[in-house]
């Protein structure tokens, strides 16, 4: 049975532009997950198919981000509506003639709710790759879908699996889209977010004198600094009880010069590395510090990086890479590395599109924190549709980098 999605607005409230069918995907071993097939409102097809592979964390089929608190140093915190990037992609493409399949990650339900903590807690890279393969097989066998025109789109961690599926299904997959792609291994990705990014913020924003030091007081009061992504108050300070009450003070362990300034390289960076090791059990040498090592973490450590995988994607599979230049989770450098690898192996059909003011969810964002305050920017959806619907791949027309 189909359900309709209507356009907003009173005048067009009865006009349906898409329809969808709910599907349950059997993942094997008694486990299943919910999915949705989005179709154009008119016609029986067959329509070109596209599978959406969600990113990291407990992602539902829409990649619902939850209500987002935007932090501003001057105005404070503000709550904004949830972003749903895969909902936006599915609706936009199905309105324009594609059959789009979305699915919840195993153990996850609507609104990023964990339904089964055991399933979710023991998830592996192989599990997620196999789940994406199952979803692809379901999509191919839908009567409205043209099995000879098949594309995959992954976001963030999901980009790890669309490259693998393209390699494993060379006669099926025509196009892959990597949105905010992962390029490096788990340690490198975590290190960038937990160490490199706050260090860059300290150097570029807080180090006003460019002498390698930042003010303790300013660091404690800077709202953005505390969100990238470790709480620096907890990381660098200790509570001291005085006659006038409890006050925060730089922890002597991380105050080598016993003053009111933090040395970025000698005091801040070591603490960030220590806290990363404690919070995420991430060390480059030890690999996994917990005994026993969690299944999901061991799996991430052992996964072959996407930078090595992408060179094996068949030459007759077209590749599109989309990345916001303000992406604070998978930085633009990752996309450039992937493009360099594809150029090195002379892959004949790959395209990179970048967006100067957009973050990880393709919404306007600063370069320091991911803003998930609303729908994807229309230009990204337009570029995605234009690339997918142009079989000739007019490079001069399609591969314009949005850098202005």
CATH architecture of the largest domain: 3-Layer(aba) Sandwich
Q: Between the first and last Cα atoms, what is the distance in angstroms?
A: 46 Å
CATH class of the largest domain, please?
Answer: Alpha Beta
Sheet with the most strands, sense and barrel status: 9 strands, mixed
Task: Give the mean pLDDT.
Answer: 82
Task: Provide the structure class.
Answer: alpha/beta
Can you offer a commentary on this structure?
The chain has two domains: about 5-185 and about 305-400, Rossmann fold; about 190-295, no CATH class. About 35% of the residues lie in helices and about 25% in strands. The chain has helices at about 85-95, 115-120, 125-140, 160-170, 185-205, 215-220, 230-235, 265-280, 295-300, 305-310, 330-345, 380-390, 395-400, and strands spanning about 5, 15-30, 30-40, 45-55, 70, 75-80, 100-105, 110, 115, 145-155, 175-180, 215, 235-240, 245-250, 260-265, 280-285, 285-290, 320-325, 350-355. It has a nine-stranded mixed beta sheet with strand order 1-2-3-7-4-10-11-18-19, sandwiched between helices. A two-stranded antiparallel sheet has the order 5-6. The two termini are about 45 Å apart.
């Amino acid at each position: 049975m189909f359900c309709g999605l209507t356009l907003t607005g009173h005048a067009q409230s009865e006009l349906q532009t898409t329809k969808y069918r709910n599907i349950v995907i059997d993942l094997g071993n008694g486990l299943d997950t919910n999915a949705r097939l989005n179709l154009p409102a008119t016609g029986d097809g067959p329509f070109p198919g596209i599978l959406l592979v969600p990113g990291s964390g407990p992602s539902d089929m829409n990649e619902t981000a939850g209500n987002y608190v935007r932090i501003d140093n001057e105005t404070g915190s503000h709550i904004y509506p949830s972003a749903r990037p895969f909902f936006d992609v599915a609706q936009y493409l199905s309105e324009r003639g594609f059959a789009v399949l979305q699915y919840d990650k195993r153990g996850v339900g609507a609104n990023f709710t964990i339904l089964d903590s055991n399933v979710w807690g023991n998830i592996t890279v192989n599990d997620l790759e196999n789940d994406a393969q199952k979803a692809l097989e379901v999509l191919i066998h839908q009567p409205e879908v043209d099995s000879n025109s098949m594309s995959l789109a992954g976001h963030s961690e999901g980009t790890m699996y669309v490259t693998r599926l393209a390699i494993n299904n060379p006669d099926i997959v025509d196009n892959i889209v990597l949105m905010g792609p992962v390029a490096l291994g788990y340690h490198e990705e975590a290190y960038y977010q937990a160490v490199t990014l706050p260090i860059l913020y300290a150097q570029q924003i807080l180090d006003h004198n460019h002498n390698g030091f930042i003010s303790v007081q300013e660091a404690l009061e800077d709202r953005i600094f505390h969100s990238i992504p470790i709480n620096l108050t907890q990381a660098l300070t200790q509570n001291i009880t005085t006659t006038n009450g409890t006050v925060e003070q730089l922890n002597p362990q991380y105050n080598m010069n016993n003053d009111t300034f933090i040395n970025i390289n000698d005091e801040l960076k070591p603490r960030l590395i220590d806290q990363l090791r404690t919070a995420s059990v991430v060390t480059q040498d030890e690999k996994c510090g917990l005994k026993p090592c969690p299944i999901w973490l061991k799996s991430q450590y052992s996964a072959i990086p996407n930078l090595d995988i992408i060179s094996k994607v068949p030459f007759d599979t077209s590749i599109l890479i989309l990345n916001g230049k303000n992406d604070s989770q998978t930085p633009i450098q990752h996309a450039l590395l992937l493009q360099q690898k594809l150029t090195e192996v002379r892959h004949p059909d790959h395209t990179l599109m970048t967006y100067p003011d957009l973050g990880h969810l393709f919404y306007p964002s600063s370069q320091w924190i991911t803003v998930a305050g609303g729908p994807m920017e229309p230009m990204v959806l337009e570029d995605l549709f234009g690339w997918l619907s142009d079989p000739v791949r007019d490079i001069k027309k399609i591969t314009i980098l949005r850098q202005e």
